[in-house]
Amino acid sequence: MKDFGFGIKKSGVIDLDKADMSLMREIAAEEPSFLHCFYCGTCTATCSAGKYTGFNLRRLQLLIKRGQLDEVSERISECMLCGKCQWVCPKGVNTRHVVMLVNKKLHARKIR
Amino acid sequence: MKLEGKRLIWKDYQKEIPDDKYFYVRSCIRQNFFPASEHHFLKIMREDLGKDVYETEHHTTCGGIGYHCDVIQLETIMSIVARQFALMTEAGYKNYAVSCITSFGLYTEIIHTWQTFPEILEKTRRQLKEATGREFEIPEHVAHASDIIFKLRHEIAAKAKYKLINQKTGKPLKVVEHIGCHYAKMFPHKGVGGAEYPYVLAGMVEAWGGEVVDYPERRHCCGFGFRQYFVKSNRGYSLSNTHKKFESMEPFKPDMIITNCPGCPYFLDRWQYVIAESEGKTYGENGHGIPVFTYEEVAGLVMGYDPWDLGLQVHQIAVEPLLDKMGIPYDPEAKYKGLEGKDLGKPELPQNICCC
Fold this sequence. Notes:
The complex is a heterodimer of chains A (about 110) and B (about 350).
Chain A: H1 22-30, H2 42-46, H3 48-52, H4 57-66, H5 69-75, H6 84-88, H7 95-111
Helix pairs in contact in A: 1-7, 4-5
Chain B: H1 3-11, E1 22-25, H2 30-33, H3 37-48, E2 53-54, H4 64-68, H5 74-91, E3 95-98, H6 101-116, H7 118-132, E4 141-144, H8 145-151, H9 153-158, E5 174-178, H10 181-184, H11 200-207, E6 211-212, H12 227-230, H13 235-249, E7 256-259, H14 263-279, E8 292-294, H15 295-303, H16 320-326
Parallel strand pairs in B: 1-2, 1-3, 3-4, 5-6, 5-7, 7-8
């Protein structure tokens, strides 16, 4: 194949029929409140870790539900598990449990 | 569906297109990319349809490429455009026919600016007078050359020797129509059918016997995009746009593509070669690409002009499969012969795409 010095760029389109939704399903099975999130961002607004790092729980929930797991794996360890997000969540999502499950599942995948 | 309401909305996107007496301006790049298209527009208009179309060697670039690449200011462009209009005024014409889609968009934008801000028009008049001694009138009608062919499509159909019909199956050819972005996306009411449902090429295809393919990325840009292509480091974006369109149209198995812009046929044609050579993917039948044409070339084929006189040998994607489908005779030996049988030389063949 010829190299022209440029090529087709990866599309930014998210195809939910092809995305890896396994992590979302595993977490929802153990913590059903995960599916109640409506992305209001209250968790992120009150997040202590988010003040000093790039941690954004709202964004991570969205990424998991779109199957974009690379960034999730990179960011999830920045959570300090203080639980403030859980106190303020208007939908009652057990956010602390969600973060712990994500850590656990991703860690298990790496070991496998 | 309320038909009355639909007609009311559609009324805004109709366009008054004079059918005669035009001052014609050529495109900077089309004469290189598709060298016989403009020649055949004039030939069809003057010799086949008996119309009065005037052109002068004194007209220049409209400056549109520089404008859209951010290297020429709008005020300078206005003086260039005013000079073109002065040439039209001096020749005694009031209808302006434009070969290039970007020029058409630019003329539309500038006239709209002058109508909205009369003080800018006066400034341009003053600048042109000081610089060249010329004076100008704004054209009564500005039509893209494809508007005119659209207007005369039934006259062309009446003289047609060939139809956009597969001679072996008797079925209409499946045609992808691609409209240049600057035709109606900026000023929808200046194009036939507006930005979302432009009918200018679809009308030609239907009048000449073909069937228009409606595919998801039909209104997506061809990928030229000026800075996307002219800056080499951005060229991947240009290619990705074209790739997206071809992936979208592929399941519909189009027989051909018809376009009305200088850049679109070039990139839809050449990027098929690049995709084939860098990714190994082809979109036509039996390892071929999908042939891409300008509307003048399609009008010329329909009217029975020789494919090689229409300049179809300079296309990257071989046109022979389409000629075979339409039943148009051609001499393979004459493909690379120039005027008076002069040998033009044969191009090197690509590895991954069949070029006959």
